[in-house]
Amino acid sequence: MKKPMRMREIVVLRVVSRVLMPYIMLFGLYVQFHGDFGPGGGFQAGVIFSAALILYGIIFGLDAVQRVFTPFAVELCMALGLLLYAGTGLVSFYKNMNYLDYDVFGSHGQHYGILLIEGGVGITVASTVLMIFYAFAGRWRVSQ
Amino acid sequence: MITHFPSLLIVTPLIAAPICLLLRNGTLVRIWATLAAWACLYFAWGILGQVQGLDGESIRYAMGGWEMPLGIELKIDAANAFVVLIITGIASVVFPFGLGHSGLSGPEGKEHLFYAAFLLCMCGLMGIAVTGDAFNVFVFLEITSLSSYALISMGSSRRALMAAYSYLIMGTIGGTFILVGIGFVYALTGTLNMVDIAERLPSVINSPTTIIAFGFLTLGVGIKLAIFPLYQWLPNAYSFAPSKVTAFLAGTATKVSYYVLLRLFFSIFGIAFIFNKLGVQNILMPLSLIAMFVGSIAAIYQTNAKRLFAYSSIAQIGYMTLGICLLHLDGLKVLNYDGLTGGIVHLFNHAIMKSGLFLIIACVVYRMGTVTIGEMKGFAYRMPWTFAAFVVAGLSIIGVPGTVGFVSKWYLVLGAVAGGHYVVAALILLSSLLAVVYVWKIIEVGYFQKPSEPIEKIEAPITMLVPIWLLMFAAIFFGFATELTGGVAETAAKTLLTAGGAIFGGGTP
Asked: CB within 8 A of B343, min separation 6: which ones?
């Protein structure tokens, strides 16, 4: 009887996932930055971006993806994204405007404001989805 | 700066939470979270002062500079300000509890995650309390619920996971009901702003959809509030969560749900619809009375101290909802506010004594390592200060004059008598007697049963005693200075009943 193959030993999966990954990430960034004009935004972009990393993790193993994005760094990003969001709102207090009033950023303030906010959302969502994947995929280590 | 206080109430814990993740060190995180809670208390105090100067008007704060109905607005009147003060007050006492000791706040090495969830939970509660947007209430409710599931699951026993899971199921059902209800209201009125909804509802008040929306909303909030038949999640969640979490949730989460119920009844749907058309009081009053007795009787039979007070909470929620039903109406004219004042003031009073009791149990667990009542022999001699605090809190739960518990029961009885509900007044007093039984259970074991081995004094650390005694001093102080809390609660009740929307759901009579 043949030993079951690991996913990374299957040529099709290995090649296809490597080809697809950059495009998935690029699409994630497109959804992120095009969110001002069309459908999309930080949440969707974050999920798409982390999907690329999760695909990598499924094919090449948890260790491989954690070498690039260590759990510590991901946890840091979760916090930093939220801080970017909340911090952007705080800037309005500087000119005594209401919280999250983007007009504080000047004449194109609404544009810059939402860009920063969505950036924060994107970072937090991407790292949170990745963290959930780590938590589930790493469960066998705890039970062993 | 004071104009920004409403948003700062939400933003402070929201920013403090991710910083907890970055700090990572247990002691640092505890100090940081405490400072955030104290800052919020300061903001809440400022807002309460501001609201009282407004004479029935409310503070309105447009988020992002977008005025209502386009944007989300925060709207604070006497009722919100009171609830916000309760949340921040309890948080400022519970967060620093056992400041120098690890092991009280979740598993070792995960304290930064524990406090991040704690602060997010507080942020959600604040959000519900200050927002003037119905959908926003749902969003913040989810923030609160998700973080409290995580907090409950961090209890030391494995059963905490199961308790958190069943709370998750019940909480999600409740949340979904609220969302469906808001959806119906939105379909009816085309707006999510509460003031706007109240203005537009009268024109569609006879539509069956209004009744369905009201039903979904009330049931959803009822699950979160743990009204009598919907309380199944509460005893497990309270008894298996870390004691600090129990103390916080018991003092705040159900209180905020009660506030949402008040808003729903008086500010959105209006008395004419709730009381005269649907006759909600005819259903809610028996349920509240049953809750008072079932909760207290179930508490008597518990052997686990945390579970005992969890059941006692169900009874206390019964008092609060009873307050709504005791509103004395003549047609559409409100004759007497005392019942509702009693319900609202009991929010504050119950928060003080129940949080205190759960913190006391946390001390007992910390020093004696048990929550089983039978094993608390010599509690009074080993930890005299903690035990003394327990006696004060116990007397307050019973409602002995000179403690806060008496104040709320006094208002409730006044309300019942004014409305001619003499039986209800008698039942309130009778159920207080049941509280004597379950409080006595612990006093008897702790004071009169001496353990066989020699007693050594193992008093709780000072960082735990100070928060507890702060609460107990409040319990005695506000038991005598009744015009402070009672006055604020009365203002809150009057604001709820006189502000736009109270009678006809917003329309002018």
From this structure: B258, B319, B320, B321, B322, B323, B324, B326, B408, B412
